[in-house]
# Entry
Amino acid sequence: MSRHRAWLIAAAALAPLLAGALLAAFQDNVTTATSALVLVLIVVAAAATGDRVAGLVAAVSSGVWFDVFLTEPRGQLTIKNPEDLEVTVLLVLVGVAVTEVALWGHRQQARASRRAGYLDGVFGTSRIIAEPQPSAEALIEHVAHQIIEVLDIDDCRFVAGAGPGPQEATLDHGGQVTRRGHPVNVDRDGLPVDESVRLVVGQGTVCHGQFVLTASSRVARPSAEQLEVAVLLADQVGAALTRND
# Structure
């Protein structure tokens, strides 16, 4: 665990304690509902960081210190009033729900950012192709870099000539990874780390070569959408090389 995350989780645990103690000092002027809302705001703040553990810790901590400071008997982890028990349980449940909603929002934002990045890569490749005299080397280098970014792999290099052999792992133009004739479940197993994956670069029956994709340092699990973007980028190279022949 990084130091920053450790501090974040510690703050998520301590903030409800401090807030509960402060609210207890003004209990004659602050209603139970208001106190619960203040603690929910702390949970929202913790969840907004995008760390599930911090959000859940804040939710549980809020429930505990609400019980200790703001319900009868004071100073004990005991609740005698059924209404106070209901508020405590709801406080924790709302905190958990808010955490999950905040994380969902973070995931949607990250997904939108990734899609925008994919489009930038495809459009950037299209602009290079549209140049009057595009350099094949520059185009290939650009696309190789884009494929590395899209698939989150270690390396991508172009090898001119024939396509992959029947026993080599391949990424076909439908976005399916195949290894020794068998489909690979990339979501579950990731891309192979003990061998490279080959992506044919060509157009129609013409093959100009292949991109060799390497993910040897860690398991990469690109989505179907990411694999399809990589194929689209390779297809753009194939079309450009065919046009320049």
Q: What stands out?
A: The chain has a mean pLDDT of 80. The beta strands are 155-160, 169-171, 177-179, 182-183, 197-203, 206-214.
